[in-house]
UniProtKB/TrEMBL annotation, chain A:
Organism: Candidatus Lambdaproteobacteria bacterium RIFOXYD2_FULL_56_26
PANTHER family (UniProt xref): HYDROLASE, METALLO-BETA-LACTAMASE SUPERFAMILY, METALLO-BETA-LACTAMASE DOMAIN-CONTAINING PROTEIN
Residue intervals passing through the bilayer: none
All residue ranges annotated as the Metallo-beta-lactamase domain in the record: 31-220
Record protein name field: Metallo-beta-lactamase domain-containing protein
Pfam families: ODP (PF19583)
From TrEMBL, chain B:
Listed PANTHER family: HISTIDINE KINASE 1 (PTHR43711:SF1), TWO-COMPONENT HISTIDINE KINASE (PTHR43711)
InterPro entries in alphabetical order: HATPase_C_sf (IPR036890), HATPase_dom (IPR003594), His_kinase_dom (IPR005467), HisK_dim/P_dom (IPR003661), HisK_dim/P_sf (IPR036097), Sensor_HK_Regulatory (IPR050736), Sig_transdc_His_kin-like_C (IPR004358)
EC number: 2.7.13.3
Catalytic class of the enzyme: transferase
Gene Ontology MF terms: phosphorelay sensor kinase activity
This protein's UniProt keywords: Coiled coil, Kinase, Phosphoprotein, Transferase, Two-component regulatory system
Reaction catalysed by this enzyme: ATP + protein L-histidine = ADP + protein N-phospho-L-histidine
Entry coiled-coil feature ranges: 51-85
Residue ranges of every copy of the Histidine kinase domain listed in the record: 85-302
Protein name (Swiss-Prot/TrEMBL): histidine kinase
Organism: Candidatus Lambdaproteobacteria bacterium RIFOXYD2_FULL_56_26
Length: 251, 302
């Protein structure tokens, strides 16, 4: 479908207003997937990554916009590879009115990164964030999948799900967009490692049913679009995870 | 040819783009390092500040502990000294009295009345020193319990000195010492009478103790802001090394008097404490063989 090979040294437009600004080290097989949503007056940065990724991620951000235009940083959960660089990113953005968007249970942990900006705690704001343009982002708390303090974000306008570690994958040959069935295999390995049981996955997938999801953008692994979305959901619905694989006890 | 220009140009564009990316990332990396260094510097500053503060409070505690230890040592030495006084010196007057009484019962025959007078003089002298010692001990113990608060009243200094002279009259006479008092007539001062009496009693008693065939003079000098009492004797004087230790807040072993009078060292120790509790000072000048000049001041502020 995509004729030209993607240059991961550049920011990559997923949609007209959604960019991948991640990091990919082919030799070390390391990658992270921060994203930008560029709205009329506001810019959201999802999960800015780790300290070693800072210069690459922010260089790509700068290629797209002026960092001072970023108004919100969404933190899906607290892991160092997801937001370990948040204090430096905050410093570079340099806005007094920058908001950190997260679940209130995460605030206590994120403070340890030395952040100064105020928190927009989604659960205290009806689970939603409405931008000035009227664009609505909706948040689901996802305890047990895998951080107790985690959230996923659904963008009603683009019908995109920013899914944190869920729908992610571990792959030897990463590509930004899932294009072959091998994506499901790497997804299986990843979920069986970090998700405690199929039961919690199923409950979560059921909660997603009310959303019309066109694409899923995970923190690790590949972006799922088109037919990959329902297939991935079906795949996870039937995937035994964590304690299911050890006969119901700890290994 | 055209193709080669395009390829070369393309390669150049690609190289310039790579260099640009690398420069941007280096700049961002420096920015990141600078930020992290700043965070570290702040942490370091806070740590150093914290260490300095705890060092200071530690030093304060250490100083206080050292001071307490020193005070405790002094207090302990003083207590030990008190015990030795109680064990030995308090017993001596009674031993002496028993000796005199035995002498009396053996030697006292009707014609020997002259010897009776002599013995009564000895009894008086021994009893006097015994009472003095008990008085000093009581005052000292009273001071130890922190109850030593001056109660100033107006009184005639001359009268006080004459009362004390009556006490010491016969002992001085036995040692051929004349007691003299030089004071402005009717000089009234305001001070704690009991304390002043105890200080003077000890200084006069010392003057008599360390003098034979001489004089003990008590003088009162009025200064702008204070009264100064002098007790000057013509006795044996004090060696320089003893002089240095006399008022150093501890009991100093007392030398034996010229007529083998015993002493406890409690007298001068008390005199200093009583002076200071009235915001006064005590000092002494002396040379061996040339007598001693003790003086103490009492401020007029009462």
């Amino acid at each position: 479908m995509r004729v030209k090979a993607l240059d991961y040294e550049n920011p990559i437009a997923v949609l007209r207003d959604i960019y991948w600004v991640g990091f990919y080290d082919q030799e070390a097989d390391l990658h992270c997937n921060p994203y930008l949503i560029i709205d009329d007056e506001e810019v959201l940065l999802f999960d800015p990554g780790s300290i070693p990724h800072f210069s690459v991620v922010m260089r790509k951000v700068i290629d797209v916009i002026n960092p001072e235009e970023i108004t919100h940083v969404v933190l899906s959960h607290q892991d160092p590879d997801v937001c370990g660089n948040i204090a430096v990113v905050e410093d570079l953005i340099g806005r007094d009115d920058l908001k950190l968007v997260n679940h209130s249970s995460l605030t206590r942990l994120v403070q340890h990164y030395g952040v100064k900006s105020p928190f927009y705690e989604v659960d205290k704001n009806g689970g939603k964030l409405e931008l000035k343009s009227g664009r609505v982002l909706e948040f689901l708390h996802t305890p047990f999948l895998h951080s107790p303090f985690g959230i996923v974000t659904y963008d009603h306008e683009s019908k995109s799900l920013f899914s944190s570690d869920i729908f992610g994958g571990l792959s030897d040959h990463w590509s930004l967009f899932a294009s072959e069935d091998a994506a499901f295999e790497s997804m299986s390995r990843w979920h069986q490692l970090i998700i405690p049981s199929n039961r919690v996955l199923k409950d979560f997938l059921q909660k997603l049913e009310r959303f019309d999801i066109q694409r899923i953008l995970p923190q690790h692994g590949s972006i799922l679009e088109g037919s990959f979305v329902p297939r991935a959901i079906e795949h996870l619905r039937n995937l035994p995870c964590g304690i299911d694989l050890t006969g119901g006890t700890l290994p | 040819m055209k193709e080669s220009i395009l390829t070369t140009g393309g390669r150049h564009v690609s190289e310039v783009r790579d260099i640009n990316r690398s420069l941007a990332e280096k700049a961002l990396n420096m920015r990141c390092q600078a930020y992290l260094s700043q965070v570290k510097a702040n942490l370091l500053t806070a740590t150093i500040y914290g260490i300095n503060n705890s060092k200071k409070s530690l030093q304060r505690e250490l100083d206080q502990k050292t001071r307490l230890e020193r005070e405790l040592k002094v207090a302990n030495a003083t207590k030990d000294r008190l015990l030795s006084i109680l064990a030995h010196d308090l017993r001596s007057p009674f031993t002496n009295l028993i000796g005199i009484a035995e002498g009396l019962s053996k030697n006292l025959q009707p014609p020997n009345l002259e010897s009776l007078g002599e013995h009564i003089g000895m009894v008086h002298s021994v009893a006097l020193s015994g009472v003095e010692l008990v008085d000093n001990l009581l005052t000292w113990i009273w001071g130890l319990s922190g109850q030593i608060k001056p109660q100033p009243v107006r009184f005639e200094a001359n009268k006080l000195v004459q009362e004390l002279f009556m006490l010491f009259e016969s002992h001085a006479k036995n040692k051929s010492i004349s007691l003299k008092c030089e004071m402005p007539a009717g000089s009234e001062i305001q001070a704690d009478r009991h304390m002043t009496q105890t200080i003077l009693r000890n200084l006069i008693s010392n003057g008599i103790k360390y003098t034979a065939n001489g004089e003990v003079l008590v003088k009162l000098e009025e200064r702008n802001r204070e009264w100064v009492f002098w007790v000057i004797d013509t006795g044996v004087g004090i060696a320089p090394e003893v002089l240095d230790r006399l008022f150093k807040n501890q009991l100093v072993e007392s030398a034996t008097g010229t007529a083998k009078e015993y002493g406890t060292g409690l007298g001068l120790f008390l005199a200093k404490e009583l002076c200071e509790s009235q915001s006064g000072k005590i000092w002494v000048t002396s040379k061996p063989g040339q007598g001693s000049q003790f003086a103490f001041s009492l401020p007029k502020v009462y």
